[in-house]
User: Which sequence fits this backbone?
């Protein structure tokens, strides 16, 4: 029977499940809103049990759709792969039951602690050995915060995991993680394993017992249990691959294992990522082990992306009859609002938006702002400014990538691709054509891990050759980049990060990266 693979991709906003055959053809797909619980000025949390229920139901709907596909005949579910948004914390007991609400990456309760680390120089060691500077919603500051404010919870906790590892534990009853998620705070950039030195750097050595085992993204870590089979419709005993961070999955499902492509993920969390064969030490970019040995992802990430548009649409169209009432990031109504806002070019007196509702990276503003707002500006003008500001933020991050490592073709994924005009704006602002992959690249990357883990392909390069498909190419409009450039330079004037030195080093298992 022909093997079929399920990719489950859970983001901050949307959870997707897709059924693929071994050529990358989509046979069934379903999406659902990823649940979010409390959302205060500092705390952003989620009910883990509700998260699993939504994910399981989404898989079940994708399987139902695949069953009705004409190409499904003779197919069998051969494996499952899981991708998920990174950082944050899920607190699990020894029985794998959640002990508290999950903390999500936009959470800022540890921001004060992070500023103190920055003042004391703690973060220098983090870059040298871990490859990245943690942010408030990443594991290191969150673990330290809970150690200080809720040590009882940590004492009851057996495992600290991320979103995809929580869902995979629900599928299999097995706890593990992979290098792309483990490297968020506590793994060595070169060895891809946990570093006692980094745990000591953050003052959380006692929490090291809570970290799950690290295995490769393609490794099979358990099989679908009987109870999970009843909830998802997956056959019991189906192998489940470890999977990977959703950003790495988007790269894999878009560019495969090719080096130096740039994948712009314009979702709730904005990420701009490339793949290299050398680790990079820099305070201006984040470097993490990738989905294959001797490969690293280099990225710039921030909340300065789709979450700002969610806020703008909800705030500016609060009436129940509004065009986007009840819908959020990437949905059809939001897409129509963006299309309407981008029907016209900004006027010379258009407001400028800095997209930092959830704070900004070190060296950038720490709150959002509308500059140049006047009495005659309309809600459409404001929404247009927000879309432009988010797109400018991505360009600034892509330029940081290009200053750190060689880069090549640009691909665009995420909710932005659901808007024709916003996709065009990306090409115009970047001054380069963008390729838009078909389908859900994150779910495809997860499914590819399952295809390799179950032995259908020898490696991810072979899986990519068979399952990744070329996207549609969107070139910049003639003269558009030049027209936008002045506004972008004004944006940079208000929003310029300080430059950072960049060094690279050959991989070595017994030494760090030299300065």
Assistant:
């Amino acid at each position: 029977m022909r093997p079929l693979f399920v990719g489950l991709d859970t983001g901050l906003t949307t959870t997707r499940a897709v059924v693929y055959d071994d050529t990358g053809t989509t046979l069934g797909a379903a999406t659902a809103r990823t649940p979010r619980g409390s959302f205060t000025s500092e705390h952003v949390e989620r009910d883990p049990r509700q998260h699993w229920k939504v994910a399981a139901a989404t898989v079940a709907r994708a399987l139902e759709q695949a069953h009705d596909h004409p190409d499904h005949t003779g197919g069998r579910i051969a494996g499952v792969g899981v991708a998920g948004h990174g950082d944050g914390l899920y607190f699990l007991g020894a029985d794998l039951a959640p002990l508290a609400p999950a903390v999500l990456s936009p959470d800022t309760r540890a921001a004060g602690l992070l500023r103190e680390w920055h003042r004391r120089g703690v973060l220098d060691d983090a870059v040298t050995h871990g490859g990245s500077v943690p942010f408030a919603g990443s594991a290191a500051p969150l673990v330290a915060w809970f150690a200080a404010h809720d040590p009882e919870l940590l004492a009851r906790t057996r495992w600290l995991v991320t979103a995809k590892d929580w869902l995979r534990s629900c599928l299999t009853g097995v706890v593990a993680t992979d290098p792309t998620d483990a490297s968020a705070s506590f793994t060595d950039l070169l060895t891809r394993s946990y570093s006692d030195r980094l745990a000591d750097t953050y003052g959380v050595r006692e929490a090291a017992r809570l970290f799950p085992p690290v295995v490769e993204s393609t490794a099979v870590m358990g099989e679908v249990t009987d109870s999970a089979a009843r909830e998802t419709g997956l056959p019991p005993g189906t192998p489940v691959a470890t999977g990977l961070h959703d950003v790495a999955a988007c790269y894999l499902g878009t560019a495969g294992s090719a080096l130096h492509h740039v994948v712009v993920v314009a979702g709730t969390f904005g990420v701009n990522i490339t793949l290299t064969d050398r680790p990079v030490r820099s305070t201006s970019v984040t470097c993490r082990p990738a989905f294959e040995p001797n490969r690293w992802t280099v990225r710039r990430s921030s909340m300065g992306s789709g979450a700002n548009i969610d806020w703008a649409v909800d705030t500016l169209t609060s009436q129940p009859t509004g065009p986007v009432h009840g819908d959020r990031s990437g949905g059809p109504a939001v897409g129509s609002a963006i299309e309407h806002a981008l029907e016209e070019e900004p006027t010379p007196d258009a407001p400028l938006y800095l997209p930092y509702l959830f704070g900004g990276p070190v060296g950038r503003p720490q709150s959002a702002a509308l500059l140049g707002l006047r009495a005659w500006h309309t809600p459409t003008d404001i929404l247009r400014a927000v879309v432009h500001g988010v797109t400018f933020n991505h360009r600034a991050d892509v330029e940081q990538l290009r200053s750190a490592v060689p880069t090549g073709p640009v691909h665009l994924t995420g909710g932005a691709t659901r808007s024709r005009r916003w996709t065009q704006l990306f090409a115009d602002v970047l001054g380069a054509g963008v390729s838009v992959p078909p389908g859900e690249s994150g779910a495809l990357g997860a499914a590819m891990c399952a295809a390799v883990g179950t032995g259908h392909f020898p490696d991810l390069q072979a899986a990519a050759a068979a399952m990744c498909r070329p996207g549609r190419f969107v070139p910049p409009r003639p003269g558009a980049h030049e027209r936008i450039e002045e506004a972008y330079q004004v944006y940079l004037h208000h929003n310029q990060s300080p430059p950072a030195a960049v060094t690279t080093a050959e991989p070595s298992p017994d030494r760090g990266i030299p300065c």
Observations:
- The radius of gyration is 22 Å.
